[in-house]
UniProtKB/TrEMBL annotation:
A GO molecular function held by the record: lactate racemase activity
Designated name of the protein: Nickel-dependent lactate racemase
Database matches in InterPro entries: LarA-like (IPR048068), LarA-like_C (IPR043166), LarA-like_N (IPR018657), LarA_C (IPR048520), Ni_dep_LarA (IPR047926)
Classification of source organism: Bacteria, Bacillati, Bacillota, Clostridia, Eubacteriales
Occurrences of domain LarA-like N-terminal (ranges): 8-208
Amino acid sequence: MEQVHLKYGTSAVDFEIDGAKSVKYLYENKMRVIEDIKAEFLHCVTDGVIGTKPLKELIAPTDPVTIVISDMTRFWMRQDVICELLVKYLHDEMGVGYDQIAVVVALGTHRKNTAEDRRKLASEFVYDHVASVTDHDCDAPDLVYIGTTSFGTRVSVNPLAVGRKVICIGGTVHHLMAGYGGGRKSIVPGIASRETIRMNHERALDPEKPMTDVRVGSGLVENNPINLDMREAGAMVHVTFGINIVVDTSSRHSGLFCGEFDKAWQASCSYVQKGYGLPIDYQADVVIASCGGFPKDLNFYQSTKTLFNASRAVKEGGTLIMLAECPEGSGSKDFFDWIKPLSKGCLDEALRASFTIGGYIFYAACESIRRSKTLLLSSMEPELVRDMGVRSFKDMKDLLAEVDFNGKDVYVIPYGGSVLPQTKEAYERICREAEENGGAK
């Protein structure tokens, strides 16, 4: 009998696995922990910069500066710590006035933040000292058109990213659509128009078949049309400096990759793949995955990262159990709106006709759910996910009553939003691709 303890929202769930043939835990590979983040930051913006000059040589004391940071769904990377160090460095070491610094929260199409959210995201010090800490609005009338990519995407961005020195702070993780988060995603979707985001993200669908394009997926960058388009769009902003954060599953800073916008991001991708990409020998009969607790299971939209990752570890027709409290419900305004075309059997046709980000995440979630019997522990009402093929429970005992562990191979994934199970062949290929595109630090 195996005793299991998994995070769930701001609390935890304890239960037993009885009668299984095997129980194996899937964790990320051992990662370093930065003990002195201030010293690491100073090194990374001076002698340790990647592909460019030290930060001091890129920005003059008279330059207006815009710092782009991520929203609350990515607060696990503790960007507030880095943002505060950066602002103090700009002011104290480089002579940039606080009134010359603006911070923009890269919301993409996500919900607006409260003032308290923005204070938390940027840090109290930054919020109280800089000229402004504002949310990006993808529907704002003053967004600036800066060009069209070779893929045909019209790129319009927040005006604070034009005519100013731009520094982007992002967190690098595996990403379902873009291959990896961080880097150019601070621009698209982060501070781009809704039209730009839609034109980029709709490339997730196969151009001919009713399915996701096989070139799109976690860890895939080389031929991924979404990533390639994002990189072109990001380059149009002429970002002065990129700061890419990698954390371990306890949100402790593990890697800081700073310098030329694209090259520093590429180096962080290699580090992420080697840290969170996990080669597995086989797919299990039963996979139990927690998102890792708050804020990673804040809503179902964010929790689908765990669904996508964990579904790779379960056999076709096996059982996937996911723990995601989701106190905010879907988390995306239009996510569950797509249940209607799903129930009518026209989801692919409807999404192509009126593509949205939430719609595609819903589409991809349905693709993953179809692979296995999917059971969910959540505070959401079960009816919300029933038509997707998910059985949802509010009590773990009720959920486990539906599971037969006897003689089964079981994987337990405590941090499903971070750990990406991969066949050994896929792991080696993706590591090689990440190395060729940037190399480890």
